[in-house]
Amino acid sequence: MSIQKPKGTQDFLPGSVETWQYIEKTARDVCRRFHYKEIRTPIFEHTELFQRGVGETTDIVEKEMYTFQDKGERWISLRPEGTAGVVRAYVENKLYGEPDVSKLYYTGPMFRYEQPQAGRYRQFHQFGVEAFGATDPAIDAEVIALGYTIYQELGINGVRVEVNSVGNPASRAVYREALLGFLLPKKQLLCKDCQSRMERNPLRVLDCKVDQHHFIGVPELLDYLDEECLSHFAAVKKHLADMEIPYEVNPRLVRGLDYYTHTAFEYKAEGIGAIDTIGGGGRYNGLVGQIGGNDQPGIGFGIGLERTVLVLAAQEVAIPKEGELQVYLIGMGEAAEQEITKLLYRLRRDGIVAETDYLGRKMKARMKSADRFQAKYVAILGDDELAAGTIAVKEMSTGEQTPVPLTQLTDWIKARG
RNA sequence: GCGAUCGUGGCGAAGUGGUUAACGCAUCGGUUUGUGGAUCCGACACUCGAGGGUUCAAUUCCCUUCGAUCGCCCCA
C-alpha cells in the first residue's frame, strides 16, 4: 500500500495554493500599512512554554498537543497556537527594551491533535498579529480593525465582529462565583455538557446552544467589571466607532485560552458548516510576565486560514490569477528545436512566461497543450521560418498568425501584452 | 475522546456471491506525416483503501485496521 498523508493534514496543490498566496499577500499588505513587522519563530518550542502560556488546564495543553522528547530528552511540543512563541521571542530578544510599541505579525502552521471536521485540521494555518507594550485602548481597536480590514480586502462579505470585555482576573473571579451561585440550583436542569462545563470553565456555559431559556436573569460579566475595565472597554468601542468598524457587543463571548484579559473579540462568518468563528483574539496583560519577561501588556488575534479559504470558496470570491502562460513555443525539426532551447531561455530571462513541449509530441498535441495552458500566443518555428529568421506567432484567441523576426519576439510580446 | 455516513481507473460515478468490472469526463492515438477549442473511430482498472475470515467462489457477507466527510466536545 502506498503511504498516505497523516490524518488531518492536507496537500495544497497547484490550482488551490493560489488562494493561499492571495490570502497571505493581502494580509501582509494590510499589516504593512498598519505598520506591523513580520516575526518568524520556531514551529516547536519547549512544552513548558505552552503549559505556562496557554494554560495547563486548557484542552489544548491537556490533550491536544503534539508532545515528544527529543534525543536530548528535552520535552518538545509542536506549537498549538502562535501567541506563546511570539511572546517568548519578544521576551528572549528583549524587544521590550525598544522605545516603541512592538507591532508584530506571523503566519504559519499550527498543530493540534483533534478529530478533523469541516474547517478543522491537525495541521492548520494561522495568520496573526501581536502588539506589545501599550495598554491604550486605541491599540485594541487598531488590532480589531486590522483583522477586519484583511477580511474586507479579501473580498469577504458579512464578517461580523463580536467584542466583549472579560475584565481582569480579580473581577472575573468575583463574577465566576456569582455565576456559579446562579447555576448551581439549576444544575440538574442543564444539559450534560453544561454540567461538566460548570466544573471546568463555568463562563463557557453561557455559550450553550440547547439550554438558553435557563439563562434568563443570569448575571452578566459586564456588570461585574470594575471602573478601569469598564472605561477601557468603553474607549475601545469609541475607537471602533470612530473608525466605522461595525461591531456587536456579545456579553457572553468567552475565549478558550486562559491568558485573555479585558478585550476579547471574534470574527464570524456563515456558511462553512458547524463552525462560524474564522478568527479571534484579545488582550493578554499578564502573559508576558508569566512567560518570564518584565510585565508588558499585549493584544493580538489569530485568523484561521483554512476557514478563510472555506469562506472565500463559499462566497465564490474570484482569486486574481498570476503567472499565466504568455507564449508556448513549438519547434519542428532538429535545427528548430535547438533554436527553441535558446529562445525559450531568452524569453524567460526577459520576463516572459514561456513554455514548450518535453514529450516529443506532434504538432496537434502541442497545440492542444497550449490550449489547455491557456497560452496567449503560440510561436511556431520550422525550417521555413528558420530560413527566414522569423517565427510564426499565433494569437490563440483570434487565430491570427503573423511572422515575427526571431530577435524581436520578446519586444513583440511585450508590446502586445 | 464519542457518534453517523463513506472508501471502485487521473476525476466523477454504476454494479453483482461466480465466464470479459457499466457509463461520463479527462488523457493518448487515428481520421489530417506543420496548427488548438467541434464531430467521428480506437486505446485506457492482472482490479474494486489495507489485512484477515466465511465460502467451491468475494469488489460484493463478517471482523479488524487505515483514511475521508459531517456532527458533538473544544477551537482557528
Structural classification = alpha+beta
Order of strands across the biggest sheet? 1-5-6-11-10-9-7-8
The major sheet is characterized as: 8 strands, mixed
The helix count comes to 14
CATH topology of the largest domain: BirA Bifunctional Protein, domain 2
Cα-atom radius of gyration: 28 Å
Which spans of ≥5 residues are poorly predicted at pLDDT below 50? Answer: none
What CATH architecture of the largest domain do you see?
2-Layer Sandwich
> What number is the mean pLDDT?
91
CATH superfamily of the largest domain: Bira Bifunctional Protein, Domain 2
Number of strands: 16
- The best one-word shape is elongated
Helix content: 25-40%
Order of helices and strands: HEEHHEEHEEHEHHHEEEHEHEHEHEHEEH
CATH class of the largest domain: Alpha Beta
Measured between the Cα atoms of the first and last residue, the distance is 49 Å
Present the secondary structure layout.
Blueprint: H1 17-33, E1 37-38, E2 44-46, H2 47-53, H3 59-63, E3 67-69, E4 75-78, H4 83-92, E5 102-111, E6 123-132, H5 137-154, E7 160-165, H6 169-183, H7 192-200, H8 227-242, E8 248-249, E9 261-268, E10 277-283, H9 287-291, E11 298-304, H10 305-314, E12 327-331, H11 334-349, E13 354-356, H12 363-372, E14 377-381, H13 383-388, E15 390-395, E16 401-405, H14 409-416
Parallel strand pairs: 1-5, 7-8, 12-13, 12-14
Antiparallel strand pairs: 2-4, 3-4, 5-6, 6-11, 7-9, 9-10, 10-11, 14-15, 15-16
The chain binds one RNA strand of 76 nucleotides through helix 3, strand 6, helix 7, strand 10 and strand 11.
